[in-house]
Amino acid sequence: MRRAGMRRWTLILLGVAAALLVPWMAVLALTLPGSTRVHHWPLAWIGLDVLLAAGCATTAFLGLRGDARFRLTASATASVAVLDAWFDITTAHTGTPLLQALACAVAEGAVAGVCVWLALPGRRGRTKSP
């Protein structure tokens, strides 16, 4: 199968996956408990920050070396930053913790925005193809 045909079928399957996730989200919305006790809570949060730091460092390293793969790590890092902000806000208690989460989300949003800007094609600079 030609490359364009493979890409088309891959994109179609991705669209089907998106459609199948809609009823699954409905099931989760109806069946998940409103709260739960979480084990390894600090590890989960530290893990997100480790991923975010590793993504920023890898993107910087590759970008400064002129390696075009920095766009891939920038894209992934933007996703992690948005995910981190989402969980910061949605798991925060009201009051000061929520205000702190919102402040962190602003910073994480800025990181995500910079990473998306870096990931977009047309960025100037000399880069080597992967």
- N-C termini distance: 24 Å
Q: What percentage of amino acids are in beta strands?
A: under 5%
Q: Structural class, judged by helices and strands?
A: mainly alpha
Morphology: flat
Largest sheet, in brief, is:
none
User: What order do the SSEs take from the amino end to the carboxyl end, as H and E?
Assistant: HHHH
Helix tally equals 4
Q: How much is the average pLDDT?
A: 92
**Helix proportion:** over 70%
Radius of gyration: 19 Å
Low-pLDDT parts are none
Got a strand count? Answer: 0
Using brief descriptors, characterize the structure shown.
130 residues; mainly alpha; 76% helix
Could you describe the 3D structure shown?
- The protein has 130 residues and is mainly alpha-helical.
- The protein contains 4 helices and no strands.
- It has helices spanning 3-31, 41-65, 70-90, 96-119.
- Helix 2 runs antiparallel to helix 3.
- The chain is flat.
Condensed summary:
With 130 residues, this protein is mostly helical.
List the helices and strands and how they pair.
Elements: H1 3-31, H2 41-65, H3 70-90, H4 96-119
Helix pairs in contact: 2-3, 3-4
